[in-house]
Amino acid sequence: MSTWKPDELGDGYEQRTIPLGDDPDGEGAIEATLVRHTPPQDTRAAVLYVHGFSDYFFQKEMAEFFTDRGYAFYALDLRKCGRSRREGQTGHYVSDLQMYDRELDASLAIIRDETGGKPVVASGHSTGGLIVPLWLDRLNRRPGGTKGAGVAGLILNSPWFDLQGKPWMRTVGTQAIGLVAKVRPKDIIKLPPTNAYGTSLHVTAHGEWDFNTVYKPLEGFPVSYGWLTAVRRGQARLHRGLDVGVPSLVLRSTRTKFAREYSPEVDDADAVLDVRQIARWSGCLGDAVSVVPIEGARHDVFISKEEARKAAYATVDRWLGSHDIAG
């Protein structure tokens, strides 16, 4: 493990790398990056946040929301994502979502050690919102279960629970993608170009957020057959039912607006996922699940317009209090 060093987000943010050895997918040495916000003096609990596809951690407002309430905040840039991607590596590529357990386990151990064993709330957005509950389900099947490992709750922000689009994409389309993945896993799927969501966010276009467009391109990263097959296998596992072992809060927008180019309608809807699918599959998490639609929310609820963000944070506040996460 490396030591903490200053992070590109500036004062109050630090990062450390988590070496993961040789890539099982054949792209050399890999590592993950754990980022932390300056912890509160009286830490009540902690949060571990995991980003989505074509994404990384940059949401300082979210970090400060939690630290203001006594939660030590940590975010993980997964292997080949954001801060963790190295030259020659395929951005975000992994052939099995279970491979992420290594950096998730390591991050949880670091957080528990640094906070003196305080309870941890796991959190994920979009693809991270699929990766994290799959990890917790496996963690819950180990001796002591999820709670024994120190996890006390789960917050998901527009989790990617199913493949959006035409119904045939979830049947014969998925089968065809899987067949190509067996022989050419890193080949890119030809999809219509879109930058509607990215430009709705970035300060140089139509948004208010300043983020690294190398880590989070406005048009997104290409989607490969092997990576999408890994996602579809993860979604199928979710659909069979998980038991994450802790209470969950699922936040989503009230509506979907798919678009290839920006329009003001994109600013108050999910331009990436079908919110009906999120609602449908949230019950598969197991334990107590609260699903709260946020009026006017974007795909990433916590970088929506101010009114929607405030509603989302107020919901999180109430949920944390109702479950007495910090004890």
UniProtKB/TrEMBL annotation:
One of its GO terms (molecular function) is hydrolase activity. Keywords: Hydrolase. InterPro entries: AB_hydrolase_fold, Hydrolase_4, MAG_DAG_Lipase. Transmembrane segments: none annotated. Residues 42-255 form the Serine aminopeptidase S33 domain. It comes from Aeromicrobium chenweiae. This is Alpha/beta hydrolase. It holds the Pfam family Hydrolase_4. The keyword Hydrolase applies. The keyword Transcription does not apply.
